Amino acid sequence: LKNPDSLQEHLTELQKRQQLSVSDRHVYKYRCNHCSLAFKTMQKLQIHSQYHAIRAATMCSLCQRSFRTFLALKKHLENGHPELSEAEIQQLCGSLPVNGEFCSESEARSLEEAQ
Questions:
Q1: pTM for the complete prediction?
Q2: What is the mean pLDDT of residues 66-86?
Q3: What confidence tens digit (pLDDT) does each residue in 105-114 have?
Q4: Rounded to 5 degrees, what are φ and ψ at 30?
Q5: Cβ atoms of 78 and 89 closer than 8 Å
């Protein structure tokens, strides 16, 4: 660095490099569009994305709370919304998949008890 101008130029260039986003200069380059998490591989990001998809699919249409499982949503509807009749709960839950498949209420209870 021969003079103050070249020093300033050098510092400006360093500052530009530091302004890159974390994803551009870091190993965790696959960033989630829904939250602030980032991952090393696209596969791990895709697995994480399933979390957001499940949360969206298990959102209570009455109060907008989301749950980790369909069974947890069903329990919430039964206990958190006592004004609902059994028929209304069945209508809201009747077509929900459990572990990716559709099952009867008795099968759902068996699965729930096994967890």
A1: 0.51
A2: 91
A3: 444 444 444 4
A4: -100, 105
A5: yes
CA 108 to CA 85: how far, in whole Å? 19
The token pair at 4 is 């103050």
Distances (CA, A) of 73 to 20, 48, 90: 41, 20, 12
Tell me: the pLDDT tens digits for 16-58?
A: 665 545 555 568 889 998 898 999 999 999 999 998 888 888 8
CA distance 75 to 62: 14
Distance (Å, whole) CA 98 – CA 61: 18
Tell me, what's the pLDDT at 26? Answer: 65
- Three-state SS for the chain is CCCHHHHHHHHHHHHHHHCCCHHHHCCCCEECCCCCCEECCHHHHHHHHHHHHHHHHCECCCCCCECCCHHHHHHHHHHHCCCCCHHHHHHHHCCCCECCECCCHHHHHHHHHHC
Q: Output phi, psi for 51, to 5 deg.
A: -55, -50
Q: Which two tokens stand for residue 80?
A: 């958190």
